[in-house]
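Project channel, design review

CF: Before we commit to the Bradyrhizobium japonicum constructs, I'd like one complete example in the thread so the newer folks can see what an input/output pair looks like. Taking Transcriptional regulator.
RD: sounds good, go ahead.
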Amino acid sequence: MRRRTLDRLSPLIAPKAMVLDRNQSGAKLYGRGRDAEEYEVAMQFDDGLWTVLGDASDVAQSEKKRRILAALRCADASMSPSDIAKEAGIKSGTVSTTLARMAEEGLVQKYGFGVWRAIKIAA
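CF: and here is what came back for Transcriptional regulator:
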């Protein structure tokens, strides 16, 4: 008997769930539902308004790239992935894979065995 009552009410139950999670790396909005695809977006709260920054994984990747570039640009010489990891506060393995992607994008260049530099962009 109880099962039938729940079946009749199922169209009235919220077909979508959304969760806002805030931590040291920022805010993320996660959502999924019966009629919607699963998503996770990065959010920013500023002046009383929430703004969608983009897909959470893309925004996180952009932050890693920014920190790696900042570490490379502050250095006087080329740096190894482990040195970059220490300076940027990112795991060494993550730095290595991100550097390979950044090289494909033309942001960094490998000089010698395991040594990287940021490519200078003319103003």
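RD: helpful, thanks. Residues 30 and 40 are 4 Å apart (CA to CA).
CF: The first strand starts at residue 16 and ends at 23.
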